[in-house]
Amino acid sequence: MVRRVPALAEERLRVLSRRQPVTVLPGTSIADCLRAIQRTRTGDSVFVRDAAGRLSGVLTERDIFGRIVGGDVDLSQPVETLMTTEPRTLDLDQTIRDAIELMQT
User: Fold this and answer.
1) Are the C-beta atoms of 26 and 78 separated by less than 8 Å?
2) For residues 53 and 30, what is the distance between their CA atoms, to the nearest angstrom?
3) What is the C-alpha separation between 18 and 30, in angstroms, rounded?
4) Nearest 10 degrees: CA dihedral of 53, 57, 62, 66?
5) What is the DSSP letter of 14?
6) CB of 22 within 8 A of CB of 42?
7) This prediction's pTM
8) What is the percent of the chain with per-residue pLDDT over 70, rounded to a whole number?
């Protein structure tokens, strides 16, 4: 994508329109996370934040399809059992190129 739209790749992330992410607290069931995604229609991931509001993990589309769909997963288990821990993040002053490179790794 970077090769096809080189000017866009150098834009800062802050220029992109963003929706409010779906967030849950630790202990939220996988089933409730999936319902939150369906209800809000804001994307395909759930961000898990601690009581202080810090990001502690994310349940991604890859987690959902790779572990839940076609698997024998108890949807009542807490999100921490399937979420990606220690997610890498970017600052809004970083570029779209940075985001693409991070997603590719």
Assistant:
1) yes
2) 20
3) 24
4) -130
5) G
6) yes
7) 0.77
8) 94
